Structures are given as C-alpha cells and as structure tokens.
User: Fold these one by one.
Assistant:
Number 1:
Amino acid sequence: MTTNSPGAGPMHKTVEAGVTIAIALFGVIVIIGSVKAGINWGAEGPRAGFFPFYIGMAIVVSSAINLWNGLREDNDSLFAEWGQLRQVLSVVVPTAIYVGVMPFTGLYLASMVFIAWFMRWLGKYNWLTVAAVSIGMPVITYLIFERWFLVPLPKGPVEEWLGL
Amino acid sequence: MEELANLFHGFAVALQPFNIMVMLLGIVLGVIIGVLPGLGGANGVAILLPLTFSMSPTSAIIMLSCIYWGALFGGAITSILFNIPGEPWSVATTFDGYPMAQQGKAGEALTAAFTSSFVGALFAVVMITLVAPLVASFALQFGPAEKFAVYFLAFCSFVGLSKEPPFKTVAAMMIGFALAAVGLDSITGQLRLTFGITELLNGFDFLIAVIGLFGIGEILLTMEEGLAFRGGNAKINLRVVIQTWKELPTYWMTSLRSCLIGCWMGITPAGATPASFMSYGIAKRVAKRGNNFGKGEIEGVVAPETAAHAAGTAALLPMLSLGVPGSPTAAVLLGGLLIWGLQPGPMLFVEQKEFVWGLIASMYLGNLVGLIVVLTCVPVFAAILRVPFSIIAPLILVLCAIGAYSVHSSTFDVVMMLVFGVLGYLLKKCNYPLAPLVLAIVLGDKAEEAFRQSLLGSQGSLGVFFSNALVSTIMVLGLIALFWSAIQEGYSRLRAAAA
C-alpha cells in the first residue's frame, strides 16, 4: 500500500524475514525449555515437556517454510515509511516510559502526565484543554473503578499523601 | 419442553431490574467500544472484565455479552458514516454503506444495517436456544480423546478457512500454544519454560495478550496511517426508519442466506469477518441489482451486517456447549467464566441452568435493547468519532493499562501488555492472523490435558484418536479442514485438466 508513495523506509521483505527469524528463535527457546522439563515418558505418563516440545518443533518448521515463501515472493513494497515509523515510535516510547514508572508513581499520576504529554506534543492543544482531560480522566477512573466497582488500582506516594 | 420452561426462567432472571440496568450499560459501552478505533469487541470486553469481579456470574455475563452486541452494532456506524470500519467485520459494510451516506441516504443505510444486525443475531440466538442443549447433552459423553478431537477440529478450521497463508496461521497458533504452556504444568505440577524468571510462574494470561495484541497493536497501526476522520452527518428519524423497514422484507432471501452463512462461519471458528465478506460476495453475484453493488445498494449493507451479527452470536454456541470459543471475543467471555469460578463446557447446562438460560434470554433482550439504543442515539455515538485521535489515543492507552493491571493486580502484566502490543503490530503488518494465537493461549492447557490423558489411556498410541466412530469422524473432519485449501486447489486443477 506504500508502493506509490515517494518516502523511503525499510523493505517489507526484510522486516518480514526478521520477524520470521525471531519467531523461529522463539521456537528454539521453547524446544530447549521443553527438553529441560523432560520430553519423554515418566512414571505418570508423558512428562511436562512432551507437548511443548512438538509445539516448538512446529514453530521452527512452519517458520522455515514462511521464510522460504517470503524470500521467494516478488514483493518490493515498503514495510512503512520512516516518518510513519517515527509516528509509531512516538507512541511506543512514551508508553514504555509510562508503563515503566507506574510501579513507582502509581497509575494516576503517571496517567495524568502521559495524557498531558500526548495531547500537548502530538495534538498541540492549549493548556486548559490539556489540564481538563488529563486530570478529568484519572478522576473519573478513580470513581468508576475504585469507588463503584471496588477494583483497586496501583497508587503511589501522591495518593498516599492525599489519603486516598 | 423442558428447554422452554428453562428459557422462561431465564427471561425472569434477565428481566431483574439490576440485570436490565447492566444490560443497558453494557450496550452503551459496547457501542462506544465499537465506534472507537483501537478498541474492539475482544479487547474491550477484556478491559472491562475486571469491573464484573464483584458481580454475580449471571449479571457479569449479561454485561459482557451486551458489550459484545454493542460492539457489533457500533462497527456499522463508523463504516457507514466515516468509511472507517470500527471493527474488521464491518469492512464489507463500507462497500455500499459509505456510498449511501455520500448520497445523503445515511439514515436508510444505518437503519438497514442495524435491523439486519438484529435479524442476524435473532436467527443465531434461536438456533442457539434449539441446538445448544442438544449439543451439550451429546458432548457430555465425550472422553478425553473426543475432547481433543473437538479442539483439533477447531484449530484445523482456522488453518483451512483463514485468508492468511496457512503456515503463518500455523506459526501464530503454535506461538499461542507455547505461551499457554509456560509456567506450572497442570498434570505433573512441574515448572516448565520459565527459565528461572519468577514472573513467569503463572504463565501468560490471555487477557493481557488480547489487550496488547488487539488494543495497543491497533493504536500503533492507526498512528502509522495518520488517521483523520471526515464524515457525513447522521440523522435518523422515525419516517426514514419506517420507510426502510417497509423496503427490507423484499431482501428476505439475502437475509436468510446471510443468516445461514453467518451461523455456519460462527460455529466453525472462522468468525464474523470472513462471514461478512462471503455473504457480501455471494449477494453481489446472486442479486438482481448485483452490478450496482459498491455504488450504494441497500442489499449490499443487509448481506454483510446480517452475516457478521449471526456469526458473532453463533460463536457463543460452541463456547457454551463445548467450551470451545468460536471467536476471540467468545474466548474472552470464556476466560470470564473461569474467573467467576464456572467450568465452561457441557456440564454448564446441567449444573448452572440459571446462568446459561439467563445468558440466552439476555441475548434476545440485549439485541432488542441494542437495536433501540443505536437507532435513537446514532448522532451521539457519531459525535464521539469527531473527538480527535490525539485525545482518544492516550485515553485508550491508559484504559488498556488499567485493564491489564486489574486482571491480576500486577504491574508486570502492564509491561507484558506493551510487549504484546508491539508484537501485535509486527505480526499484523506481516500478515499473521492474531485470532488463532489468542485462542491457542486460551485453549492450550485444556487441549494439552485432553491430549495427554488420551495418550495415558492408550499407553502412548495415537490410535486412540481413531478408536471409535465418533472420534474418528471428528478427526477426519479436522484433517479435511486442515487441508481444505489444498483440496480446493487440487480439485480446480483436476477440473482444469479435464476441460
């Protein structure tokens, strides 16, 4: 779908081969783990690694076929343009930071900063709108999840200080 | 007519005020989920699953299944008004729905879509009411070999019926099985595939996988495409509705055919998306005005919507009666059953009558309520779509994180969610199907258990899977499904050679 656009970017073929090889490696890990757990019959029947061993084999074999098919295919389209990938990373990186700090700051504070960042930098909203949404959403979340449905969410020092 | 009495009892359960309230809430949330990009039936239900932990199982399943109906309805709104399918199964609805909206006939298209959805769902629910108890009582006789054969059939149908390359389907499915195997082995009590990482002791939860693969992955795809919403106005008034309703019965043949296609594709785990495409394709070939399809033909809206809803509903039949979900969303509902302490499978019909029949009754009511809600509130739901993506996206990401956290109150799960999200983006871009992966995570342990128990009984001989007529039949059906595309190709080659 990106064939007729002028931008540059990684080839679809290359990325797909990479993904296929990564899947095959995952299959190898599964095989190694299964062998460790024991793939033969024990006193109580097939041992723990018996079933996953064949699963791992199936992953490796099907990946080999997929790799062969993928490389043979006559496909010179792009996986995505660099600009598009930058867009994707502009979500992945902040989300990774958001997820990473959550155990320390709690969910609410992290969510506020995350939403505010997203709206301000990617959406270019004025600070009033940013503040309204980024504070409003966690407050509503608190009411719905913790007050009405009694589902506890991770809290950090700020919530403790507020006595929630 | 014991079933009829049970069904009436079910209606009594579903009509309790609290359950009606839960039903309405579920439908509204479901439509919102269906309208928003990045939130779909499966991950929407997964995110909201924790909200039901404090409810009774019956109210919980009513709410979650109504979210599912709502999402099925909601997908049509975005397809027709904005040419953006909110759900994969409503892609085929855009073909004629959006041209109709551009010609100023959005009201007619929406009415046709919602009504067809309702008809399709109703057809499937009636089928479930009649067939599910029979299948369940039949399945009560199943031993481990028959159970494994049913799983085998379900997974083989995926390989044979999906439009992705068969070996990619196999690879995706096997990744799911491998992830399901991580952690404590349920038979020997031994740890496996954890490589000394304590967080992996309990294995991978499929709810986290669903939220990541479908939720986060979808957001990343949307970001890449740089989505902007442009859409027509949604106005539905009573006059348009009644006028459209007068016209719809002329398409009864298309409706009936789409219902049958939908039910068939829903029971075999092909799902709503191929059902909608297949139904659209056949209608286009058969219909009198088939040449006009794609230019705004109302029949082109009726066919895919009926089939998608029939398939989405019929997917609950194997989940209820056999414990084998027919779609990712049905799989999430099945996961819910386990969390509420119910054992999915044929015993449900014996032990949990109130639950099963309450659910079936709520399918009738929920779809009726859904039809009324979407017909009256379309402008409100369409307005949600006008909220810019740079506000919607972070809110959905935060919701996904909350959903992932609250499954086990674990922040490690939130990290896994992001990992699954990136994985989902890459797999989807490389044309790997995600549904079999998720279903394999859900069913992996059960399939393995049935497999090993059968082998234990037979001292390791694979002959146990062909030891009697029943199990052999299911296994052979599975093998046919597995090699279906190869069989088709061989057949057409033979015909070409003969001609």
Number 2:
Amino acid sequence: MPDKRLELSDAVASIKSGMTIGIGGWGSRRKPMAFVRELLRTDVKDLTVVSLGGPDVGLLVAAGKVKKLIYGFVTLDSIPLDPLFTAARERGELELQEYDEGMFVTGLRAGAARLSFLPTLAGIGSDVLPANKHLKTVKSPYSDDEYVAVPAIRMDVALIHVNRADAAGNVQFLGPDPYFDDLYAMAADRTFVSTEKIVPTENLLDEGSYHTLMLSRMYVTGVIETPRGAHFTTCEPDYGRDEVFQKHYAASAKDPAAWDAFTAEFLAGDEAAFHAAVERFHAEKEKANV
Amino acid sequence: MSNDVTIAEICVAACSDIYRESGELLAHAVGIVPSIGARLAKLTHSPDIILSDGEAFMMSEASPLGKPASAGGVIEGWAPFRRIFDIVATGRRQSIMGASQIDQYGNQNISLIGDWDKPKRQLIGVRGAPGNTANHRVDYWIARHSARLFVPSVDMVSGVGNDRAKAAGLKHHHLGVIITNLAVLDYDEDGRVKVLSVHPGVDPQEVTDNTGFPLDASNAPETRLPTDEELRLIREVIDPRAVRNREVPAPQPVG
C-alpha cells in the first residue's frame, strides 16, 4: 500500500492562488483547522472556498484569502454568527453562492458523480434563486414538476480532519456524524486528510466498527498527523469544542485591536506554537479563576 | 394551579398541539419552547413522534433539555446530517423554526437584513429553510412578537410563504401555525396570516400594534391553557430548571 504521509506545509504548499478548495466538517464541528491555520501562514489568495462554514471561513476571509464563497451557512454553533465572516459580508467584499444546506449537498453529490447538475426541490420559490443568478431550474421530463438544477460543485483540493487514518489514507470517523467529508473528497481532484492519529491499517477496527470507515484511500492524496488539528472545533470523541477559547475568538473578532492581539498571540507562529499559546491561555484563565 | 401559568407554558402547550396529527415522523424543533413542546407532545397525545437530540440521533426517550444523546435518554436511530436531508425529501419530518422576518403570506427570512449585495446585517444564511418548506410542514416560533419581525415584505425569502409556494407549484408545501409570545397565528384560505387565538392576559390590540401588516385580533378566542397534567410534565419532568421562562419576555401589562 502507498505511504501518503507528509508534512502539513507540503500539503498546503500545493494549494495555489485562485484555486477552489473544499473544507469538510460542519459549522464549528470537526473542521480541519490545522490546514486552515497553515493556509493563513502562506501568501495564497483569491481562493474559492466551499464550506458548510464555521471559523474556517471567518479566519480565511479575515486574512483576505477568499475571493468567492460557496456555502450553506457560517456559524459557530454555540455562538450563532462568526463575526469575521459577518463583517466581511456586510462590507460587501465577497463573491457569494449562498445555498440551502440540502442544495449544497446536492451540488457536492453532482460533483462527486461527475454530473453537471442534480435536481432538487429545495430552493424553489425562495430568494436563493434570484440571489444566485447562475442557478437555473429544470423541467421534469416525466411530469409537470420543476426543480432547481444545482450545478456540480467541483474542487481542486479538499481538506478534511478525521479521528483516525492509516498511512495509505483510509479514513475513520469515530464521532456521531461523518458530515459530508467523503463527498468533498469524491468531488475534489486531490484530498488531504489531517488526523488525530495515524494508526497501522490492521488497527483501524480497534476503536470503531467497520461502519466507521468513511473514506477509502483511493480518494486521498496525502495524510498528516495533527493531534488537536480540529481545535477549537469539536472532534468527538477525542475532544469536544473548546468553548472558552471559541468565546475568546468570537469576542476578539468583534474589535480590530483585540483581533490584532489575538492574531499576534495565536496565529503568528507554527502549529506547535498555536497549541502552546492555547495552553498558556487556559492556564492563565485558570489562574484568574482561583 | 392555572393562575400562575406563564406565557412560556402556554406557548409550550401550543407547540405541543402542532403534533396532534403527526403520527410517526421526525419532530425537528428549534428553540427552547418548541423543544419542550415536542417532548410534551410525545409524553401526552403523540407518543409516536420521533424526537431528535439536536445532534445525530433519534430519541425514543428525550435527552436532557438542550443536551445531546451522550447526556442521557434512549437512542432509537441514527440520523447524521446526510440522513436528515434524505428524511426531509421523504416528507417524514416537521420543523418548528425561528424567523428574523415574516410577511403576511408566511415568507420567512433568516438570511440577512438589507440588500443581498451589501446587507446591513448578515444573519445565519438561509440554512435549511428553503428545503424544509418545499418538502414538509413548517411552523414558526417567535419569542418576541414585534412589528420589526412581522413586516410587509421580507428582505430574503428563506422559508417559502404561501403565495410563492402556490405560484411555484410546490406540492408538499405546508405552513402550519406561528406561535408567538402574544398569540397563535395561522393562515386564511388565501394563505394570508390570520389570528387563531390570543394568549390569556394579552390585549388583542397589542397583537395588531406589534404586527407590521394588517392583522385583526379583535374577535379571536383565547389560546388554551395547559392542563394540570401538562403543567406537571413541563415543570417537573421536562424543564425543572424553568429555562422556558427565560426565552419568553413577559407581555406588556394589559390595559
């Protein structure tokens, strides 16, 4: 079997300005945040980002990396809105395709199946159609029904974060929901997987049944071990959302000076420096609470 | 017992009534009062409905209020988001959703305030509202009935209203009721919002005054009170910490 292990920086170095990248997870849940942070360290820009968005979108948008966003929503779950995204959106600086969640998934399915579109009822009658001028409807050849023809979402690169993977790129999720990570991978030309832990293939079933084997290596380009790589979003059952840190992120994001301080403290160094800074943050919080 | 019934408890009973004829389907409820309402329905007149833990599981016994299945309850099925969209498409689901704006035909907006190109306020996006309203019954829960929310026309139609659904030929479209902290609203035969009942202690004029389109509440009956058994279940079993009363502002004093 191929050995696809590589460094975070090598994977991200293959992402070029102007590319379309998909980011797995959902809201503030199992987001490939180590990849996102690594992207922030590059000078890549003009990305088209495909995401059921959380802080991944907020961070990339605030760093000026995003030209266009294809999304169903952007939320931090326990905090309804991501301040970095809403601020950019209200400045009117993003090119947008805002879909109903189900439409978004329909677009991924079309992309994965190499179809140019798939039909859905979702969106009919709503303002999603006039807001997304590229969207067309299609008449059923069998009845009077009319559907939204959701264009295929294809990506140059998909980034996902999972609980376990082997060195060849067989991917396992151990939490309650696979989200749509497998579809992102199938609809992308290349997929990079970050994982809490790389395990030998023969140990893949040690922690979960075969139902947890979400994605085959045939869809995976590279595998990177990044413990706490989804932080501060959830990565159940390895860890839950770091709500204290997320609150700090959201509060900092509302104020330019506070955001500069947040960036300097947490995002100026490499991945190890980020986690060290988060540890310091929690230690100081704890001291303050004693 | 009835004298100290709160508006939140009246709203919970009204939410519960939504499920009286639902049978076996997934009860999706956004917000504290709707969540309690769905649980109440399951414990009383509608034992067959399937509750969600708000995460990925179907529950035959509810998890603790506001918590996922990992905190308790009995899992009867697995419904990660991909299955949710499949369920929506089969129609075996009902939603009680919130709204930032609703117009007189029940068009709902949760996406943004202002213009699409440069919104005054970006909200959460259309989320699942277009698909939900195209596929199954949708009801709305409004904790603060106001003229800023009930508007002549919404800024971005997320949940499809009756006029639009008719024009577009949506066959599975079904708007149920709108439950607010002042009243229960439904729709007339033309699909326009009308008053079904006004909550006890609320001046009907207050409903009209707090609605941004014409809405006559003068002849509406009173919303039913929860029964003693319902109150016991709400207060002792489902929501002993009385979180419900924090979601609903007390109405202005009457008279």
